[in-house]
Write a structure and sequence with these properties.
By secondary structure, the protein is α/β, with parallel strands linked by helices. Helix content is 48%, strand content 15%. The chain has a seven-stranded parallel β-sheet with strand order 3-2-1-4-5-6-7, sandwiched between helices. Strand 1, helix 1 and strand 2 form a beta-alpha-beta unit. The model has no long low-confidence stretch (mean pLDDT 96).
Length: 246
């Protein structure tokens, strides 16, 4: 799919999403940025898009809520008249011992990390269908893609991200004939989480076969690939520097 003149929506892209937005704008796309609590980051991403000569809008919404998902999609279409690309980047990453996982904790993890991707996709697909096609890019995790939990205390997160892989495949089958391609990205060590010590950062880099963290641009490159492709669908691509091999 040619990206020039098309419209993309990024949900919840706080840090990596800013770089993805900038790179899509550089290829001629207009952007919609949704956020829940990161207004400053969304506004900055929108400003970067405008600085690149494209149009952008930011909208507040909680993608774990069905009505908010519909409202975000409708805002995108009302603003730009179309929606060609949906990037389901909204996610929460947290750990807790299994004994401390409450029903509320479980529901929050699955609603933000999995259900939101389904709800936004379901709302976006009719608009893509009317436009003659579209692209949906979900976000899983390198461990979920590899089929091994590996780290304890992440049960709800791992289950949700594994569900994203299954959702990607199921949606891809449903809409492939309509030129709507659905894929996912499974990031590995891209950007160090806040609070990680220099020693921990170095330890992760050493455990990654390429020897370093990836950086946000590597995710943007993968997003662009999955937006431009006309033949890849139902795939979950690891962007992890070979971490799954170690």
């Amino acid at each position: 799919m040619q990206l020039e003149g098309k419209v993309a929506l990024i949900t919840g892209g706080k840090r990596i999403g800013q770089v993805v937005a900038r790179e899509l704008a550089a290829r001629g796309m207009d952007l919609v940025l949704s956020y829940r609590g990161s207004k400053n980051e969304a506004d900055q991403a929108a400003a970067d898009v405008v600085a690149a000569g494209r149009k952008a809008t930011a909208i507040s919404g909680d993608v774990s809520k069905p009505d908010d998902c519909v409202a975000i999609i409708e805002h995108a279409v009302a603003t730009f008249g179309r929606l060609d690309v949906l990037i389901n980047m909204a996610s929460i990453y947290r750990s807790t011992p299994l004994s401390a996982v409450t029903v509320e904790y479980w529901d929050t993890d699955l609603n933000v990390n999995l259900r939101s991707a389904f709800l936004c996709s379901q709302a976006a697909i009719p608009h893509m269908r009317r436009a003659g096609g579209g692209r949906i890019v979900n976000f899983a995790d390198w461990l979920a893609r590899s089929g091994r939990p590996r780290y304890p205390d992440f049960t709800p997160y791992f289950v949700a991200k594994t569900g994203v892989v299954a959702l990607t495949e199921a949606l891809a089958l449903e809409v492939a004939a309509e030129n709507i391609l659905v894929n996912a990205i499974a990031p590995g060590p891209i950007v160090a989480p806040a609070g990680m010590s220099p020693e921990e950062i170095a330890e992760v880099a050493a455990a990654t076969p390429v020897g370093h963290w990836g950086g946000e641009l590597e995710i943007a490159k993968a997003v662009i690939l999955l937006c431009e492709t006309d033949f890849i669908t139902g795939e979950t691509i690891r962007v992890d520097g070979g971490r799954h091999l170690a």
